[in-house]
Structures are given as structure tokens and as C-alpha cells.
Design brief:
heterotrimer; A mainly alpha; B mainly alpha; C mainly alpha; B: mainly alpha; Four Helix Bundle (Hemerythrin (Met), subunit A); 2 domains; 8 helices; about 0% strand; globular; C: mainly alpha; Helix Hairpins; 3 helices; elongated
């Protein structure tokens, strides 16, 4: 990746750099070259955030200076500054996610290209699902109700309907009722959107494609996603309307109780895999689809459905959409909202629907693996690196999209529960069931170890041996995988001709000392 | 860069805390508390304490503050309850608080922390005991060590072979779990007692 | 050496602590006082985590702050139950009304 000689034109060299960076840099986001002291990306992020804040301040001052002018309404639209702030925060976060191993080179062009691709991808994955699934919701609900749904927008199938909706919503006046607590009323949608966007930072879209790689990624995702309830409850309270207040109260009660089974069922894959890193959890499910954690034991099979039910509730989707029950509460917590602020709530709702579906498919449904072992290894040996990862991303996106479609299907099929039924479902049924599943999946491997001599009922390796079976990129081997175990070495050496030395690839293991007793205790544990 | 991010988070934390003190509306206080606590979580991430930061977000911001807002809504007598503080009391409290703050700042600026940490390093060896993980050294690798310490194994004693008798944090962990169970039972008992007593007491009041 | 040192974190911790104390002293509302308690505990947490770098494991302060967070959640739950009971008895959560036991 050294700069080309001077006789080659600049554009050509830039193109080469871009391709190289796509092949090497993006494929292992941890080994990116580093901009020494340049800090283009964080500066850009900071400038964007500052610009957004300044723009919003200007709007505010302008609207105060000329309260009656007709241009006032247009000035009060918050979406421009909002976009800038989100982009800036994305820049900062992605920069931190890409903090590299070797602060040696100064190829800032590559870094800029890679990071702008990352930011674009994150923003796209935050915004596009909302657009796609709002359209899908309208089409599916139309078909379920025996009508056509949108037909005209964008030519056929009404596929641009969401864009038309968005443009309409941007033009609407941004109202705040007289009884509202203005400050909180205006800030609540931002809380919801920021919480929902921030949860995407820890989502690995494909092998290693994660903005912020953390060992407790799943935990942080759950934590950030649970912040959404704050925006909803503040919106409900500050609207100054009893319907909104009821919606907010219901949402609070529901979210706080459904956090418990959500946490317990999400811990079951963590318990089986021994890690909270979503990337590693997905890697342990490579190979045939029997390796998917949903088929790991009967307990995990049930746990997936419990998890799915609970995510329905935590996203306020039917049959648990008590917070916005339109037949009794007008619109629930968003009764008083209009225009862009109203659509922020829905942007966040569809984005977090998509997020929990992606988490569900990463935890239980094999992540970015197709589930057909020969197909996976063929694809990954033919298209190594970047194209293979793109394919993996497509697989993950389709799995998550399928789950979202099931959510939509359920919404238009099942009737809404009463609030006491919702709380009963959670506290009397789902919490005990998830506790039972948790204990069951603790006991399951021990039981089979004592009966059959191996920790699982299905024939095959134990889950710890499956790490990176299909990976063709030796630098991607997680460092923790079994340094000190002779029997595991055979397995890894078979797959990776470089053997254990490949574990010392720069960027991943540079600082990692071989601490065998520690690893045995902390990682392999009882397995 | 670290300085910039630290400044943002520190300003948000301190400003949020000040706004909690100065604002008069309970729900606005709760909002500023959210800002302050989330920025503290950001500070934890800056200190490489990712697990503690996530716990802060999940339990404090997502749990405790929601509980507080819930309490506000259950006990409010009208919309937008105003808390009037006597100006004299406020001035007195701010003066005393300023004095305490000055004392704290004077106390910790008087200590040579670098010398202390050098001493500790000489005694116990380097502070960073990394378990190999998927991530890099500095980001997000405290989980495994913390889990090991909570189950009674301190990784640094394993590495050295020294200090093998140091027990880790198994006992506090057990104590906290028993404590949580007691709190669960106690809180549900209090809530249940309230429901039983309430009708008989509210009837004379109404 | 990182330009953001230990003292900066300790400064933030002290600020949070003092704000919490003032909040507890000036608010008459039970829930307002609870928020002050949370701020105080958070100030202590910042100190714990900032100082944990200087311990042999590098984690001691973090684990202490984890315990603080867990116990604070428990404390908030119990305090809220008490506040609701108090509201049921006095139809107010103004702590100045709680003078039943005064002779």
C-alpha cells in the first residue's frame, strides 16, 4: 500500500489505494493504517457536530427574532442540524472503532476513503431499513387486509412511498402544544433517535465489519437500546396531554419489565459461547446450520422464540403496542407530535426493529453464515476478503429482514393485548420461562458430558472448536482460540497452514502475551 | 483528540449536575440527570472501563432514572410540579457546597499521584495484565478479567505466581447477590403493604 | 503521558459530588433528594474508576464501582417504595411534612 511513483497519475494511485484499502483495510478493520497526527476524521466529526449545533442555534435565534414571519416555519425544521449531528457523532464513533494497531504510516487518503465508506454504511443501515420496512409494512398490511397498499409512487409497487412520506413530513409545521413543557417536548425525539442510532455502532454487519469492536458488545447494545424508553416517557410527560401521559406510563412499565427476560434470553448464547463479542458468537456458528445456536439444545430453541417475543414488546410492536394504542389512546406518546419530530419516533422504531432482528440472527441464527457448510467454504475460498464479507453481510441482512417481516406479519395478524395481560405475560410467564431456559442450558452440556461423554447431543465438535472453521483469512483468527491445548492445535493447523504462528499477525496479537493458565481459567472454563 | 472528547463529556457531566441542582421542575431534573449520568458513562469508556460504562448505561440511566421518573409521575399532584427553594437556603447551600468543593480540589491537587503510582508499580508490577482477546489491548478487554476476578481468580496473581492467596472478589459478589435478593423481597413487600393499606387510609382523607 | 490525567477525572468527580450534596440539601422533594444521592454516588464512581488504573489488577476500582451501581439501583428501588408509601400516607412527598414523630 505504498504510494505510487510520481509518473503515475494521482487519480490512478488513488484508485489503487482505494481498492487495496477495500481488500486489506476494510477486511480487517483493526489493522488499518493510521493517520499519525492528522486526525482528519475526528476533526470532521467535531466540525459537523459544531456546525449542526450552530445551525440549530441560528434557527432558534432567528425564530425568536421574527416570530410572525412566514419563513419562520421553514426555519424551525430540525432535520438539517439533526442530520449533521448524527453524521458527526458517526464520524467520531467510527474513528474510535477504527483505532488501529500501528500508528506508523500517514496514508490519510486511504483512511478517509475507508472511514467515509464506513460512515456511509452506518448511516445507510440506520436509515435504509426504516425506509424499506415502512414500505414493506404498508404493502404487507395491505395484502393481509385484502387491499393493494401503495401502488403509484416510483413507478411500480409504490416502492418510493417512504420517500414521499418523508418529504411530506419534512414540509409539515413543527408544532408544540400550549400545555407542553417546550424544552423536553423538543428534545425527546432526539433522545430516541440517538439511542437507536448508537446501538448500531456495536452491530457487526459481517465478519469484522463493526464500527466499535468491544468484548462486551452485546451488553452495550442492550444498554443503549434500553435508553430509548427515556425519550418515549419524556415525550409522553412533556406533551401535557393525558393520552400521551398514559402512553408514556404504559411504555415505562412495559419496557422495565421486559428488560428482564430480554437480558436473560440474550445471556443464553453468551453462556454457550463464552463471550459477549457478537463477532465471536457468530463465528462459533459457522458450518452446517445444525451449528446455529437455535439448534444447539432444546432450551436454546425455545429461547429464540422467547427472545423474539420479548423484542416485539421492547420495540412496542403489536401485540404489545400499548404505548401507542390508537383505539384507546389516540396516538399514545406521540399524539401531540407532528412533522419531522413525529417521524423521528418512527425512524427509531423501525431502525431498532431491524437492530434487534439482526441481534437475534447473530445470536441464534448463525449470523452471516448461510448454514450450508460447503457453500460457505466455497464462497469464502473463491471470494476471499472483501467480496466474501459483502456476501456475508447480504446473508445477515436477509435474515434480519426476514425477522422484521415476521414482526410485521404478527402485527397485522394478532389483536392487541390489554395492559394487564401484557404485564402478566411478562412477569408470570416469560420471566420464569427464561430463568428455566437459562438453568436448562447450563445443565444440558453437563448432562450430555456425563451420559455420552461429549457436551452436546448432536454429533460433531464442541462449540469451542468451531471458531473460525470456515475463515480463509488467517489474520482474522481470534487470538483467544486455544493457544495452549494440543488437541485444538491439530484442528487449527489443519485449517490454517501457518499454524499457531499465524496467530501472531500484527494488529491482533501484537501485545497479547501467551498467558496459558489465565486463558484456561477465563475462557475455556468447564468446557 | 482524547482531550476534546474528555472535555465534551466532562462539561456535559458537570453542566448536567449543575442543572439538576438549579432547575425547579422534577422532570427536568430527571432529564439533566440523564445527561449527566450518560456523560459519566462516556468518561468510563474513555478510561477503558467498558463494562462499567455499559452497566452504568443499563442500570443507572435505563433503570434507576426510569424508576425515578415513574415515581415522579405516580406522586405528582398537578402537571409540572414546581419545587420552590427558599433563596436564602439556596445561597447558603451553594456557599457550603463551594467550600466543600474547594476543600476537595485542594485535597487532591496536593497529592503527587505519579509518585504514588510509581511506588505501586514497583511493589506489584505493571498494572496492565492483559488476557488475550479478539480486540486490541486498550479497547474493550476488561470483561474477561473482571469476570475472573468476580469468580475469585485474580489474573495478575496467576501470571506472577505470586499472591496466589488473594481471593479476588467472590465474597463481595455473593454478598451483593444476597443483598439484591433481600432488596427484591423488601421492595415488593413495601409495595404490597401499600396496596393493602391504601383504601382504608384514603377514604377518610377523601 | 496522556494530557488528560487523573486530576481531571477527580475534578469531575468532586463536581458531581458537591452538586449532589447541594441537591440533597436544597430540594424538599423526596425524589429530588434521591437524584442528589445518585449524583453523589456517581461522583464516587468516577473517582473509583479513575483510580483503578493505579492498582495491581487494574480493575479493583472498576469492580468497586460496579458494586456501587448495583447497590444504588437497590437503594433507589427501596427508597421509591418508601416514597410511594409516604405519599399514600401524607398525599405529598415533601419531606418537611414527615414530622409525625415530633413530640
Amino acid at each position: 500500500m505504498t504510494p505510487s511513483p510520481a509518473d503515475i497519475s494521482f487519480i490512478q494511485s488513488a484508485a489503487t489505494w482505494l481498492v487495496e484499502s477495500l481488500r486489506t483495510g476494510l477486511s480487517a478493520s483493526c489493522t488499518l493504517p493510521f493517520v499519525g497526527d492528522v486526525y482528519v476524521v475526528p476533526t470532521l466529526g467535531g466540525v459537523l457536530v459544531a456546525l449542526g449545533v450552530l445551525l440549530r442555534l441560528t434557527q432558534w435565534i432567528w425564530s425568536r427574532l421574527s416570530p410572525g414571519s412566514p419563513s419562520n416555519r421553514a426555519w424551525r425544521q430540525p432535520w438539517g442540524p439533526m442530520l449533521l449531528v448524527i453524521l458527526g457523532v458517526g464520524c467520531l464513533a467510527v474513528f474510535y472503532g477504527l483505532r488501529p494497531a500501528s500508528p506508523a504510516s500517514n496514508e490519510d487518503l486511504i483512511l478517509l476513503a475507508v472511514v467515509s465508506i464506513h460512515i456511509g454504511m452506518l448511516a445507510a443501515f440506520f436509515g435504509l431499513p426504516a425506509f424499506a420496512f415502512i414500505w414493506a409494512e404498508r404493502k404487507i398490511s395491505g395484502r393481509i387486509q385484502d387491499r393493494l397498499g401503495p401502488t403509484h409512487c416510483g413507478g411500480r409497487f409504490g416502492w418510493l412511498q417512504s420517500l414521499a412520506d418523508g418529504i411530506k413530513l419534512i414540509q409539515k409545521e413543527d408544532l408544540a402544544p400550549a400545555a407542553a413543557d417546550r424544552m423536553l417536548f423538543r428534545l425527546a425525539p432526539y433522545l430516541v433517535v440517538i439511542a437507536s442510532f448508537a446501538s448500531f455502532l456495536i452491530l457487526p454487519f459481517s465478519d469484522g465489519w463493526v464500527a466499535v469492536a468491544l468484548d462486551c458488545g452485546l451488553f452495550i447494545g442492550m444498554a443503549v437500546l434500553s435508553l430509548e424508553v427515556l425519550g418515549v416517557v419524556l415525550a409522553g410527560y412533556s406533551s401535557g396531554s393525558k393520552w400521551s401521559l398514559f402512553g408514556g406510563m404504559r411504555e415505562t412499565a412495559q419496557m422495565v419489565s421486559y428488560e428482564v427476560p430480554l437480558g436473560i434470553t440474550a445471556v443464553i448464547p453468551v453462556l454457550i459461547c463464552g463471550t459477549m463479542n457478537l463477532n465471536e458468537i457468530a463465528h462459533m456458528q459457522s458450518g452446517w446450520f445444525t451449528n446455529w445456536l437455535i439448534f444447539h439444545s432444546p432450551f436454546t430453541f425455545v429461547a429464540f422464540f422467547v427472545f423474539f417475543t420479548v423484542t416485539l414488546a421492547s420495540n412496542k410492536r403489536a401485540p404489545f403496542d400499548l404505548a401507542e394504542a390508537e383505539s384507546e389512546l389516540v396516538g399514545g406518546f406521540h399524539t401531540e407530535y407532528s412533522g419531522m419530530r413525529w417521524s423521528f419516533f418512527f425512524l427509531a422504531e423501525y431502525a431498532s426493529m431491524y437492530f434487534v432482528s439482526a441481534i437475534g440472527s447473530l445470536l441464534f441464527l448463525g449470523g452471516w453464515w448461510t448454514g450450508i457448510a460447503p457453500l460457505d467454504s466455497a464462497l469464502h475460498s473463491m471470494l476471499e476478503g472483501y467480496p466474501g464479507r459483502v456476501l456475508g453481510m447480504l446473508v445477515l441482512l436477509s435474515k434480519a429482514g426476514l425477522l422484521v417481516c415476521v414482526q410485521i406479519w404478527i402485527r397485522w395478524t394478532l389483536p392487541r393485548l390489554r395492559i394487564d395481560q401484557v404485564m402478566t405475560t411478562c412477569l408470570k410467564y416469560l420471566v420464569p420461562i427464561s430463568c428455566f431456559l437459562f438453568i436448562g442450558s447450563v445443565i444440558w452440556p453437563l448432562f450430555w458430558l456425563s451420559v455420552a461423554g461429549r457436551p452436546t447431543m448432536l454429533p460433531g465438535q464442541s462449540i469451542g472448536n468451531r471458531v473460525q472453521v470456515l475463515s480463509v483469512d488467517p489474520t482474522q483468527v481470534p487470538v483467544h482460540s486455544d493457544h495452549g491445548h494440543g488437541d485444538h492445535h491439530d484442528h487449527l493447523d489443519h485449517r490454517h497452514p501457518h499454524g499457531p504462528s499465524s496467530h501472531e499477525a500484527p494488529g491482533h496479537t501484537g501485545q497479547a502475551p501467551a498467558v496459558n493458565p489465565v486463558q484456561e481459567v477465563t475462557l475455556r472454563g468447564g468446557r | 483528540m482524547g482531550v476534546l472528547v474528555f472535555t465534551i463529556f466532562a462539561l456535559a457531566a458537570c453542566g448536567g449536575a449543575l442543572a439538576v441542582v438549579l432547575s425547579q421542575n422534577v422532570v427536568r431534573m430527571a432529564f439533566w440527570l440523564i445527561i449527566s449520568l450518560s456523560s459519566v458513562a462516556g468518561l468510563f469508556f474513555l478510561l477503558n472501563a467498558d463494562f462499567v460504562g455499559a452497566t452504568q448505561l443499563l442500570i443507572y440511566v435505563g433503570g434507576t432514572v426510569v424508576l425515578l421518573i415513574f415515581g415522579v409521575m405516580l406522586t405528582a399532584q398537578g402537571p409540572y410540579t414546581n419545587l420552590k427553594t427558599n433563596p436564602g437556603e439556596m445561597v447558603l447551600a451553594l456557599a457550603v457546597g463551594g467550600a466543600v468543593f474547594a476543600m476537595l480540589v485542594a485535597a487532591f491537587t496536593g497529592v503527587d499521584w505519579d509518585a504514588n503510582s510509581d511506588q505501586i508499580e514497583r511493589k506489584f508490577g505493571s498494572a496492565s495484565t492483559q488476557v488475550a482477546g479478539y480486540n486490541q489491548q486498550d479497547e474493550g478487554s476488561s470483561v474477561r478479567r473482571m469476570g475472573a476476578a468476580l469468580s475469585g481468580i485474580r489474573t495478575e496473581s496467576l501470571r506472577d505466581g505470586r499472591n496466589l492467596k488473594r481471593p479476588g472478589y467472590l465474597l463481595p459478589f455473593e454478598i451483593v447477590s444476597v443483598h439484591l435478593l433481600v432488596v427484591l423481597v423488601g421492595a415488593s413487600y413495601l409495595a404490597r403493604a401499600k396496596r393493602r393499606v391504601a383504601p382504608s387510609q384514603s377514604s377518610p382523607a377523601a | 503521558m496522556d494530557p488528560v490525567g487523573l486530576k481531571h477525572y477527580l475534578f469531575v468527580g468532586a463536581m458531581l459530588f458537591v452538586c449532589g450534596v447541594v441537591c440533597m440539601a436544597t430540594k424538599r422533594n423526596t425524589i429530588g433528594m434521591l437524584m442528589g444521592v445518585e449524583l453523589v454516588l456517581n461522583g464516587a464512581n468516577v473517582n473509583f474508576v479513575a483510580l483503578s488504573r493505579h492498582t495491581p489488577l487494574g480493575l479493583d476500582g472498576q469492580i468497586a464501582s460496579m458494586f456501587v451501581i448495583v447497590l444504588a439501583a437497590a437503594e433507589a428501588a427501596v427508597a421509591l417504595a418508601i416514597a410511594l408509601n409516604f405519599y399514600n400516607n401524607h398525599l405529598s412527598i415533601d419531606v418537611d411534612r414527615a414530622d409525625d414523630l415530633r413530640g
